[in-house]
Design goal:
- By secondary structure, the protein is of the alpha+beta class.
- Helix content is 58%, strand content 7%.
């Protein structure tokens, strides 16, 4: 029996939840190892050996250690092409290129404004940090423009990289989940015909439902 991969970090972390969704999609056995960040466990010498930047997630597959959630997801798909969702990272170079293209769009264009909004609207109040309304307005405008591009794309294909759910779609789930469910900015997604349809479909996947349940258990 294969040794389960190890995923280090709290499920409430967006980057950790991205990896958890991937291992569930790929039907790869895994062990979730909690890291108490409030106690500084992510800065311990042992943890820094596998995640030199002291952030989550960290990931181990036997003797291999990785960090950065999108790289971990690609690795899982490349190592286990025949397990679970076999189309998650494409089955030929052309499809993979399309998935990589939209993964880059997520990381470079969607993630920055959505992360700022998520912090300002969800985490700043919990941390007793004053919200910056100018920053909120600026990044809401940026995110709206990104989603206009998505609206057009999703009018042409069922998912971002084509007709199959892929890492390109999965990678959007963590940040968007907070914005739709924990802020008043959900209409950025749900009010658009194609983006709303896409969002409803990707959040209904069993893998993501399981991640949300794990987040609730750790809340």
């Amino acid at each position: 029996m294969a040794t389960p991969v190890k995923v280090y970090g709290p499920p409430l972390s967006t980057a950790v939840s991205r990896v958890l969704a991937c291992v569930l999609e790929k039907d790869v056995q895994f062990q979730l190892i909690p890291i108490n960040m409030s106690k500084g466990e992510h800065k311990s010498s042992d943890f820094l050996k596998i995640q030199p930047f002291g952030q989550v997630p960290a990931f181990q597959d036997e003797d291999l250690s990785l960090f950065e959630s999108r790289a971990i997801c690609r690795y899982l798909c490349e190592k286990h092409p025949g397990k679970g969702n076999t189309k998650l990272y494409g089955t030929n170079p052309l499809v993979k290129a399309s998935i990589d293209q939209w993964l880059e769009a997520e990381g470079q264009t969607f993630n920055p404004p959505s992360s700022i909004l998520m912090f300002q609207l969800v985490f700043a109040p919990r941390m007793k940090i004053k919200q910056d309304q100018t920053l909120i307005n600026k990044n809401e405008e940026k995110l709206a423009k990104v989603l206009e591009v998505y609206e057009k794309r999703l009018g042409e294909s069922r998912f971002l990289a084509g007709d199959d759910f892929s890492l390109a779609d999965l990678s959007h789930l963590p940040n968007a989940h907070y914005l739709v469910n924990a802020t008043d900015k959900g209409e950025l997604f749900t009010s658009k015909k194609n983006v709303g349809r896409w969002w409803a479909e990707i959040t209904s996947r069993d893998s993501w439902k399981k991640v949300v349940e794990m987040q609730k258990q750790k809340n």
